[in-house]
Hints:
Blueprint lengths: L1 E5 L4 H14 L2 E5 L9 H7 L8 E4 L2 H10 L5 E4 L5 E2 L10 E4 L8 H6 L2 E4 L11 H16 L5 H10 L1
Helix pairs in contact: 1-2, 1-5
Amino acid sequence: MRLVIYEPDIPQNTGAMxxxxxxxxxxxxxxxxxxxxxxxxRLRRAGMDYLEAVTLWRxxxxxxxxxxxxxxxxxxxxxxxxxxxxxxxxxxxxxxxxLMVGSESRGVPDSVHAAVDAxxxxxxxxxxxxxxxALAAALVLGEALRQTGGFPDVAEQSVERSAV
Length: 164
């Protein structure tokens, strides 16, 4: 399972998603350009000391990301979008899936929509646009990990905590 962040605008959201990925042992693909300097202090504040625990792959562009997927084995690319045609709650996730979130201000362009394997939507009350991108990533990633048995082992965490 991977988390793909497409051209993020807000460092705090990116930091929160990197922290999420670190806690669950999920690799992150970050597609640039970003709307902020990637080593911005606010990103570090949001990610805290968790940033060192995340496997982060930076891609200079959408085309560079796609080229990387062509040269290495990759699972399905699933876009979380308000324009989705399938609720994530009705989707069968697989361990090799990559969950992609778009830019906070622009989402993703039509070319990205056309390239993904599925476009998933979070069911919400009518009249409301969307959740915060980091909250959306956490919600759907949690369900994907639940379905695939991908959460870290709680028993191992208990042993590590008692040794400290």
